[in-house]
Each structure stands twice: as C-alpha cells, then as structure tokens.
C-alpha cells in the first residue's frame, strides 16, 4: 500500500516561509490519515477521501479556498479515475458545493459520468448535496487586489491499495481571474488518469497540461512497457518543448512512486506506512 498527494505549487517569491511550513505540516497530516484509511478501503475510496481533506483545507486552491474567476464567481472542477474498472467521472465548473470530488465519485454509478456547470450543480442538489460557499476572505482580498499569488494550487491523490489496484483523483478551483467558463485539466484525462498499470494526478497550468496530455501520456507509456521514470522523463521533455508549467504525481503497478515538476516547487507528500517524503 502506498499513497502520494499534491497541493499545487509553492513560490518563495510570493508566499511566506510560514505558508511553506503550514503546507508541509498539512500534507504530512493528510497523507498519514489517508494511508490509514487505505488500510481498510479501496484505492478509489481513498483517493476521494484524501482529496476531500485537501479541498477542506483553505491552504489549497480546491474546494474551500478556491480561486475567484474574472466575473467574481468560483467555479470548481474535479475528477476520479478508477484504474481497476477503467471508469472516469467528473464535474466541470460546478458552483456552491463543498467537495466537488464527492460529486465526481457519486457520478461513477451513472452512464453519463462527466457533467458541467449548472447541470452538475442540479445533479448535486438532486442527490442531496447542500449549497455551500467555498469563498474565503483571503481569496476575496486577492480578487479585489487583482493578485494572482498562489493560483496554481490544484490538489490530487494517487493511491495503491493492498490488492494492487490504483486510482487517481484531482480537484481544482481554477487559476484565478480567468475568463468566465474557462475549463481546466483537472476533469480531463490530461490531468487525471489511471489504469491497472499506473495512476497520475497533475497540477499547474491547465492549458499546458492539456496541450501535453500529461497524465494520459505517462500512463500509456507505462502500459506500453516503459518504466515509470522513463515515462516521466519523456513526457516532461515534451512539456519543456512548449515551456509548460506542470507537476505530476504517480504510482505504478509495481508500487514505484514518482513526482516531478517543470518549475519549482510542487508541494507533495507520500507515505508507505513507514517513510514520509514531503516537499522541501
């Protein structure tokens, strides 16, 4: 059993040392809780559990604390990919729900598994998910000051359970101040993808991740016989060709863990029951 999570990026130039320490502590606490959850739950259930904890932490740009778009509204996206069943579900630009990843999980039972905007919200309401404002005072101040600090804060998780099954989940509040209706990578296979060989969750600039098809490329390359490290090398080399801004976390079917960013510093933490690794 292994688990790795991410919480977007940290920049020394626009975030304090105190914020860095707070994120390190938060990620370490969440990854440990998620690992213990993984002991009695599936990879897919655990990926959702971990992402919910990240969505509920105002340090990150997902769920509570999501960025505000140019029209003053918060629109969130999230997805879940079950590598065992090969099913993908997600919500795009949903508003006023506490945990978008929960709606993505709920959609797994539907034939239509990716919903957008008002349709996603209507589905959530119909299925008992209450209205919830994810706006925080800090995000409102940033919006009013037109500050983009901390915008690259998508969260995600890849889990590898005791049966060797893999799942990935990703959630974002956008990049902040974007055009109304802009769609990120988080509810696409470019940003979140898994099969029985590998699972990947991405963070960064969604347009770059989609242009590079980052998560899908890594998983397909591992499926076709590359090692996880080789798949990362090739995919991030291609990302560099377009000066792409992205980070990715992954676990393969052998239990190998990989993380990489094209621009420092992606915040992440992993745990295998004995050893932690946390970004520095």
UniProtKB/TrEMBL annotation:
UniProt keyword Hydrolase, yes or no: yes
A Pfam family that the UniProt record links to this protein: Asparaginase_2
Active site positions, chain numbering: 154 (nucleophile)
Residues of the site described as Cleavage: 153-154
GO biological process, one term: proteolysis
Molecular-function GO terms, alphabetical: hydrolase activity, acting on carbon-nitrogen (but not peptide) bonds, in linear amides; peptidase activity
UniProt keyword Hydrolase, yes or no: yes
Alphabetical UniProt keywords: Autocatalytic cleavage, Hydrolase, Protease
Annotated substrate binding sites: 182-185, 203-206
Source organism, top-level taxon: Bacteria
PANTHER family membership: L-ASPARAGINASE, N(4)-(BETA-N-ACETYLGLUCOSAMINYL)-L-ASPARAGINASE
Protein name per the record: Isoaspartyl peptidase
Record organism: Kaistella treverensis
